[in-house]
Amino acid sequence: MNSVRPHEPYGIPAFKALVAGAWGLLAALNVGAATPPLTQPGASAAFIEKHCAGCHDSVEKKGDLDLTALALNPGDPKNFARWLKVHDRVESGEMPPKKKTRPAAGEVREFLAPLAKSLAAAEQARAGDEGRATRRRLNRYEYENALRDLLGAPWLQVKDALPEDGEAHRFNKVGEALDVSHVQMARYLGVADYALRQVMARSPEQPATAMTRYHARDQRSFTGPMKFSVFNTSPERATFPVLGFEPQPEVRAGKAPVTVGAADPATRDLEGVGVVAGNYEPLEPKFISFKAPAAGRYRLRFNAFSVRVGPTVQIDPKKPDRWWIPDLDKVARGRRSEPITVYSETPPRQLRWLGTFDAQVEPGLHELDVWLLAGETIRVDASRLFRSRPGAARWQNPLAEKDGSPGVVFRWMDVEGPINDRWPGAGHALLFGDLPLKKAEKPGAPAEVVSANPAADAPRLLKNFLNQAYRRPVPAHEVKRFMPVIEHALKNNASFADAMIAGYTAVLCSPEFVSIEEKPGKLDHHAIATRLAFFLGNSAPDAELRALADKGGLRRAETLRAQTERLLNDPKSKRFTEAFLDYWLDLRRIIATSPDEALYNEYYLDDLLAESAVFETRAFFAELLRGDLPARNVISSDFAMLNEKLAAHYGLPPVEGVAIRKVALPADSVRGGLMTQASVLKVSANGTTTSPVLRGVWIMERILGETPTPPPASVPAVEPDIRGAATIRDLLAKHRTQEMCASCHTRIDPAGFALESFDVMGGFRTHYRAMGVEGKAPAPGIGFGGQKFTFHYALPVDASGELPDGRTFADVRELKRLLLTDERAIARNLVKQLVVYATGAPVRFIDRPAVEKILDRAAARGYGVRSLVHEIVQSDLFLNK
Amino acid sequence: MKTPARPSRPVPGSFVSAQRALSRRQFLRNAGVVMSLPWLDSMLPAFARGETLKAATAKPRRMLGICNNLGLLPDQFFPKTAGRGYQLSPYLESLREHRDDFTVFSGVWHPDVDGGHPADICFLTAAPHPGSGGFRNTISLDQYIAERIGHETRFPSLTLGVNVLQGQRSLSWTGSGVLIPCEEKPSDVFRKLFVQGTPAEVEAQMRKLAQGQSILDAVGSQAKDLQRGIGARDRDRLDQYFTSVRELEQRMEMSKEWEKRPKPKVTASMPLDPASPKEYMEKVRLMYDMARLAFQTDSTRSISLLLDSVNSPTLDLDEEHKLTDAYHNLSHHGRSEAKIAQLKTIDQWHMKLLANLFKDLKAVNEGGDTLFDRTMVLYGSNLGNANTHVTTNLPVLFAGGGFRHGQHLAFDTAHNYPLPNLFVSMLQRMGIESDKFATSTGTMRGLEMARA
Hints:
With about 900 residues, chain A is an alpha+beta fold. In chain A, about 35% of the residues lie in helices and about 15% in strands. In chain A, the strands form seven sheets. In chain A, strands 2, 3, 4, 5, 7, 8, 11 and 13 form an eight-stranded antiparallel β-sheet that branches. A four-stranded antiparallel β-sheet of chain A has the order 6-12-9-10, with no helix packed on it. Chain A has a two-stranded antiparallel ribbon with strand order 1-16.
């Protein structure tokens, strides 16, 4: 994981040099024509002399700050930032510090008011009348969604073909960070061309929707591992045949055919193949004889059930009793359901998560409605079962009991699809209208589009396409702009379809499509529609929004509210929650590090846990949004969104099944809220160790909405030590006692200390784990990979701490309680994050009143998250550039 | 920022030279005047000038910059003694036969480049604070070189990678701070360098490029129109867009010309791409080979190679060396002896591959010199110690290229010396008149050129 963020240049001697006299503030009043002087300079200087200069003068210079010599030159961004910090520290009462005499409230006001005015004036002058936001291109999430919606192709996957987007103020939504290069341009050309060709009709007539059954017994990846070979002699890594519920030793021994085949369909449907381990090299069952013939919607139906495989009975008493090894000829009914994760796979091993279901004790059908790309096949993973990993000793299935091991049997998969709701598809119709189609000469190529009159068809189709693609009315000259592209192609003997694709490619790479236009001042109706759509659907406006904008009806508060409701209720709003959380909480980095194989081997390779963790956080935020639940739930909630895996991981009362559902939490639970969710605890740690500093910074920035001062670059990070001799708190202690370091660390570390109760995957711990110390007996237990634990429990965790204001807490529950005392601050942070995401610009100093207004209006609803979204949409921040 | 058609605007990239005397747009504008001239010559200085420059400078200079983003175990890499008579460290023992042909540095860093892992993208740029919110990367050394002398070769630069997290990491960055994606497959590099397309393919490619240019004409004109009457910040964004269109257009024009020229022939055969990221070391070996072939055929002078160890799984080495953990996990060794032992194995492997690269470069003769004498190889990491993620005390080794090597330049480990100074020395060795790169303060102290 990242080390602590770096320092901004802090000492600003250049500005000090600006000041000749001893009273920088006074002298500065005349600096910068755009900066009106403070109205009561005498009062300000007196305030500094009386309350600040004791520490922040040229002698003491605490925090490298000499307020007696710091000019006020807010036209300069760095100077502005410094004074803003002074303003905020004084305003919050943090400065002067507790131990000093408190200035009277009136004194503070008199100091802050003119300073605020100067800062605001400078900021306003710098921004000019261009508005907060800068014209920006779509980020790659948005570009992908816009293409999907325009072309009626929800299965398109083009995001990763575009360069990574720049990030500013935590999000990929800010114009200044969303660059365009020649590389980006070249990628646009490629991606647009690819996407357009993907939606072309493959044949002149609608192909019949096929329904095909793929038996597990016909898949080599299922039946191959039935036999032991030089590569595998271990039953856990083998598969086994089952007919009905009965094992088939003859088949397994190769003495009977693998399947009865098509001659006996009734028996064939009862044949299954079982596993006692998850899908992991070298045991990777998949329905490889199915390959999606074309991109589109498919219905998958699985017949599967859970079983129990008997233990190996000890025959020779002199040999060790290895009861945990399954006897694959002893199969009995299962005792519990087993979660199955379904992935699509593009060789080699490019996996895409499609869905999950629970295989029950009784064989049953489990249906998934999915989008597949051409050529993808289907892989199934019994994701609760262990994954055998070699190590110091032979593996031992951690789920095995004296009377057997849990397993899953797959019988078959039915595939229906591609399912075409209309023919040709919406994308094709957009590109070529109802022009007749002819079978292509080249096999596999899309059907040939026949135009009897290209000179008339081309501009007609192009005009229609432009109207759909651009998010505002299209002037006639735009058609003229792109016609030469099509004409050029036709002249060079391109087919009609290829020529049109060239023209459309140009449209999809043009600035009107690729970037978002907003004029300074109040946004027009189309710009509002665009902002709203990219905010709540992460895509271009749909037909309804577009129609409202065309009619000029979007400025009305009620309309805006109704549209916001509609978009939030649309299933596509999950694009908003996912994209927002991907950046706000870094969920996109969930697999950036994996849990250490030795220290955390119960988590290592547990995909279901990592996936569930992300789904939990998404479901949690969606629930806040759905139920308009108060923003304080971000810190602490009386419920959690869990499945069986997570409930067990959190040590909560068990629930059964892989689906995420809302569960009430016990009153004394450490869970509830975002900070103690596995996803957050995972992305704020590396796979081996946690750091209160890194987690503290993470929580401060994202949950508390404060920006910590980064450490000086020359200070090395505290080196983690997994031998267990010292806790991270001990290692940090020296650091924290140094005054230079302490001033920041007292602000950063508290949340981090409270979260020390959670390991790298968010599991609760009372003791640290350690390794590599001789004479220490390892903790009992077996990891997900079947290897015995090698770590031992070391020093106890101390999760207590003290907030900068002096309030103390013993653990994370108490910390949450302290933080809950300021619900408005929790809501304020959420608003700030959402405003950046929604408007593509940060909350500036002069935007603060607008944020307070949003909060005021949502206060009556307890700062409900849905209310906050509504108030943001209705705010000046949202409705102005 | 208002007039995008400035020819001086940096136009970096991995395919076509930016330094063009005459843009296609200008050419069309002046078509009436130049029509009687052999237009190719006036429009494509890369070829004409390339020939003459090659004759004039006689000695082509080259640069290969390699970053292994998990670094090397410091106590095994850094020599304990300094100067010319220094004693080889355990790792450097593997390079014993090249002892006089490289310099090892200690106590160097990229000033204020911190942030741990994200710092790898700054290894050739030295842009400070890659972990911070407002970070923007700057031009990388290889692209800086490509901008200036890239027109002398078919490819101004090559950006290579092993197990790179695509779209996220690269050593090569354009002047506007945009990532240039890495070539991952040795066979793709080989094909790009040496495999001639059929006439039909060439013709199809030419048509495709012309089609692309017509598309860019249309979108470029819209960007121009939109720039009217808008604020400076918005205009700047559209200007960047327009510039990108123009740069791509120029590249397409250049690519059309290269399409017509035959590619060099080599006796080496097309490499087989390792199928799995586990075959990391084989991939590294093949990329070293591709770099050597590219230099040998003078296809390019500037190559970056990112070894994305962070993104690599448990490596397959050989029967004797079985690893248990993914490379990244090993680097978080937490002082575990078992993990450190495995890391040593990996690091030693790196050293041996490097020794082989040096040997291969030495085996090629070019105008009385060896290829090694004319090729600077920079090998290092953005991490001083992967266990702690520090970005100080970087392990850096610098070989070949015509310097007086055979020394350990030991700087202060508490207050590091700026590594960008080495970049300035490298630029000057390339014959590029630069006295500054990123946060440099001069040229590398203690490093002298061997001969002109």
